[in-house]
Design the sequence.
């Protein structure tokens, strides 16, 4: 093992400095506010946060967890089709289609979905006029389902983009071998392709998870506020009461949630590097 | 036999593709419809009257949609430049050199993405007022860069890792200095991946409005800020039109960058 | 290295770029919906620029509801904390609660007695913002009011009181919608009105004095609200309620009167929709014009406000163009408005309704107690 490179640290320093100055330092202020009461260390703000928002903490975890899971499944499926399908036109069209939501800011996605998913929104109206759905059967999706759908719609293209890229670069011969032995394409995808791109999938999902956790506009615009996600509660704490300490405590809690995925990432990353010996 | 079986399969594929297209474009169609709807209310399923009245409103002389759009694009481009300038050395170090706590450093870049931002930006604004950076494009660019850096650094690290180390060694063996080897071999080979990361930084900047508000307003106003106000106020026509305008630079930038998106780089992001 | 150098140069250039080339810029920051920004951009701004050559009015919206006012407060307070000697907003337009806080933290300047129109307003809201004395620091821009909007095609006989509404919602589940308390002020107003109706002494909540123990007396009212919510739809935001009315998903919901008329003018509500003010009362509030303590253009700012609160501008802009109730006393607008406009403003809600059932919000400490009790008892 070579010894730690001082030069390397020097190269990372400018980027780290930017993050430190514009993020870590302000974060320090937030942490101070969250953990002190009248200058003394205190957990009072966390007690309040749990007392008022325990439902919302669970709700946030479930929403983000479910969204991440759905994104994973959909991305694997679509990236798999892009990589393994032998129907040229299908791949070509799909490639052009899937990435559009990537360009839509979250706030616009929220705006689109709020009129699309409503009870008398465009989705139900289209389904009713096609005769698929009876008008009496329509329901509004403007609740937790709306948030999940919007997140998946907006974030899946990002994961597909990364995943399809990774799948394209794996050694085709392993897939060919599997196919020649008579394995179905689904089996090839799950048993041969997926294990080789696991790391990319994990990274893309970590980035998506973390991004969704910090989005305010989607839960605010798509769903009513009971229950709601932590970002909405934070904004409400600040806007209605000017109560930064509790808002910051909620921020720390959402960092706790981030810590879970950061831990998974770290463990995986360390193992990878130990194996790869890079 | 094969043709007989192929037909239903093809129909099935077309059907699945149509469904997918509806899922992707359905919400966007809604956006497009609202942008030309002058009157649309229950019980009508489509706009009652169409027109370009709201386009005129957005582009009216006193409105500043175009000026804001230009500011937004300028800020996004500068953000990309700053992020890449910082990410190239950092990415190289993370990919090639032995760093203590390498994974922790990688995660550090992830953190600004994760914290719901309002509380942070208030403190940033306080610092920037003291430095005289509020109300400047530079201030906004720095804030956006800190936020988008995770994409730039992670992808740059992947791009450098994807470069074949033997090529570098060969250059060194032929007597090139380390710096020369970097600029003639490593950087050109990694450049496609690095440029590809630009699209994410660009989009991140075009999506951001909280930081822009605290650091830029009133001197610097961007299109996403206008969009936020119109959208939260339920001003659907204006919001839809603004969103459509905002789509233009994103798509153009994507088309430009697309040729640089390389599979082998994407496969190494975040490693 | 030339690209890097270019980047550095570009950045340096952008850092030193002056914000505007004009001699005098008046920066107006306004909370509230887009129509507020448009009002300043399209109506007041050009008018003021014409009267004062060389001046450019820049309007910035900070977002709807209390969060918009909160952002203005945060900008001012950050500049105070940084000891900036000139602050970057010259005129602000903010809600009551934040205006009170900004006055008590010394972020605003006293200017009302310096301008001629200062004497045209006598309503108590001009000197008292939810219990904080703001006399001299603010001028009401307009008065707005919440009311129940309903679709007469779906509701033949709208309820007249909160108690009627409670029964109506039981009989017609999921046909009434409001936005809770986190999505904007129309839902907050509805909730405050609920506490006025079922929580005991409404007068005390509006006038004070504050007693921390009072909130215990709302238990029953809030428990009933929780039951009520089972049959109501919780909508996403002020606009969310109007949105569901737009598509006919709900038949009734609390809205801001001015937003209601603006949506109707924009073709986003059926023209047959009507308003109803529930008894014993629903809250309304003014928006205030104020000048930050260290505004760079304080004199110009006062001049701007004087113009904006003059009877003719209030008549043409506030009442006729935007369907708000005037900020200055209505008697000064007599003769400045045609009958049709006047009547339209008061067609659904008569002056009589307004005088009986238009209430202020509770004073700030009760206001916060109601919100927090709602979070505790109704939501979590």
Sequence:
């Amino acid at each position: 093992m070579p010894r730690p490179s001082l030069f390397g640290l020097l190269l990372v320093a400018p980027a780290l400095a930017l993050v430190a100055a514009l993020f870590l330092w302000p974060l320090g202020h937030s942490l101070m506010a969250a953990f002190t009461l009248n200058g003394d260390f205190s957990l009072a703000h966390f007690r309040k946060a749990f007392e008022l928002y325990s439902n919302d903490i669970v709700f946030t975890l479930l929403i983000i967890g479910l969204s991440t899971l759905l994104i994973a499944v959909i991305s694997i499926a679509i990236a798999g089709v892009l990589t393994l399908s032998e129907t040229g036109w299908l791949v070509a069209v799909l490639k052009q289609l899937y990435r559009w939501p990537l360009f839509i800011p979250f706030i616009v996605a929220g705006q689109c979905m709020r009129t699309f998913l409503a009870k008398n929104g465009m989705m139900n109206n289209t389904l009713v006029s096609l005769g698929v759905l009876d008008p009496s059967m329509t329901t509004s999706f403007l609740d937790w389902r709306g948030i999940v759908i919007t997140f998946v719609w907006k974030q899946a293209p990002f994961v597909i983009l990364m995943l399809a890229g990774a799948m394209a670069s794996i050694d085709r011969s392993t897939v060919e071998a599997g196919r020649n032995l008579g394995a179905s394409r689904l089996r090839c995808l799950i048993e041969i392709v997926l294990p080789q791109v696991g790391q990319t999938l994990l990274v893309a999902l970590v980035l998506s998870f973390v991004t969704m956790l910090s989005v305010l506009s989607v839960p605010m615009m798509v769903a009513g506020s009971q229950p709601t996600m932590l970002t909405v509660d934070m904004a409400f704490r600040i806007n209605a009461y000017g109560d930064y300490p509790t808002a910051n405590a909620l921020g720390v809690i959402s960092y706790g949630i981030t810590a879970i995925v950061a831990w998974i990432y770290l463990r995986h990353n360390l193992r990878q590097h130990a194996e790869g010996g890079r | 036999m094969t043709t007989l079986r192929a037909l239903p399969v093809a129909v099935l594929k077309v059907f699945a593709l149509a469904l997918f297209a509806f899922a992707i474009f359905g919400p966007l169609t809604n956006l497009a419809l609202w942008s030309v709807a002058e009157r649309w209310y229950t019980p009508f399923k489509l706009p009652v009257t169409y027109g370009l009245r709201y386009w005129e409103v957005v582009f009216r002389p006193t409105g500043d949609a175009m000026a804001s759009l230009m500011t937004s694009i300028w800020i996004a481009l500068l953000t990309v430049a700053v992020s890449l300038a910082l990410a190239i050395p950092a990415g190289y170090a993370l990919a090639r050199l032995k760093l203590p706590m390498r994974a922790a450093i990688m995660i550090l870049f992830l953190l600004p993405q994760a914290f719901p931002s309002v509380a942070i930006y208030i403190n940033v604004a306080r610092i920037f007022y003291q430095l005289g950076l509020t109300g400047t494009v530079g201030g906004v660019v720095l804030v956006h860069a800190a936020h988008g850096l995770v994409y730039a650094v992670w992808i740059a690290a992947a791009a450098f890792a994807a470069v074949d180390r033997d090529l570098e060694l060969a250059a060194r063996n032929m007597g090139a200095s380390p710096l020369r080897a970097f600029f003639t071999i490593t950087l050109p080979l990694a450049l496609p991946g690095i440029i590809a990361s630009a699209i994410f930084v660009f989009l991140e900047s075009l999506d951001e409005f909280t930081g822009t508000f605290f650091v830029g307003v009133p001197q610097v106003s961007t299109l996403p800020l206008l969009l936020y106000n119109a959208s939260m106020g339920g001003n659907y026509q204006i919001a839809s039109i603004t969103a459509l305008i905002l789509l233009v630079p994103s798509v153009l930038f994507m088309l430009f960058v697309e040729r640089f998106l390389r599979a082998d780089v994407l496969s190494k992001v975040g490693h | 290295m030339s690209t890097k150098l270019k980047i550095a140069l570009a950045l340096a250039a952008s850092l030193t770029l002056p914000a505007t080339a004009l001699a005098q810029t008046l920066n107006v920051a306004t909370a509230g919906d887009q129509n507020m920004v448009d009002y300043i951009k399209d109506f007041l701004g050009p008018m003021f620029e014409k009267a004062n050559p060389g001046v450019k009015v820049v309007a910035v919206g900070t977002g709807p509801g209390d969060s918009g006012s909160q952002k203005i407060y945060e900008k001012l307070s950050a500049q105070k904390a940084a000891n900036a000697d000139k602050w970057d907003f010259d005129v602000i337009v903010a809600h009551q609660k934040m205006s009170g806080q900004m006055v008590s933290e010394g972020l605003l300047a006293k200017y009302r007695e310096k301008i001629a129109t200062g004497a045209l307003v006598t309503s108590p809201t001009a000197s008292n913002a939810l219990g904080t004395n703001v006399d001299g620091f603010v001028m009401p821009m307009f008065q707005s009011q919440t009311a129940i909007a309903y679709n007469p095609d779906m509701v033949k006989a709208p309820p007249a009181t909160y108690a009627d509404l409670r029964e109506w919602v039981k009989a017609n589940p999921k046909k009434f919608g409001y936005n809770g308390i986190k999505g904007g002020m129309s839902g907050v107003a509805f909730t405050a009105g609920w506490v006025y109706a079922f929580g005991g002494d409404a007068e005390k909540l509006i006038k004070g004095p504050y007693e921390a123990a009072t909130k215990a007396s709302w238990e029953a009212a809030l428990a009933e609200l929780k039951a009520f919510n089972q049959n109501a739809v919780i909508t996403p935001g002020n606009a969310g309620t109007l949105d569901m009315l737009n598509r006919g998903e709900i038949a009734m919901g609390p809205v801001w009167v001015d937003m209601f008329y603006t949506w109707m003018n924009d073709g986003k509500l059926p023209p047959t929709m009507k308003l109803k003010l529930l008894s014993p009362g629903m809250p309304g509030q003014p928006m205030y014009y104020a000048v930050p303590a260290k505004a760079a253009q304080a004199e110009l700012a006062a001049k701007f406000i004087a113009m904006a609160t003059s009877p003719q501008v209030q008549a043409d802009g506030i009442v006729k163009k935007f369907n708000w109730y005037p900020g200055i006393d209505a008697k000064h607008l007599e003769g400045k408005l045609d009958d049709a406009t006047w009547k339209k403003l008061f067609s659904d809600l008569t002056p009589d309704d307004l005088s009986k059932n238009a209430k202020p919000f509770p004073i700030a400490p009760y206001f916060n107690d109601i919100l927090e009790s709602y979070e505790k008892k109704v939501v979590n």
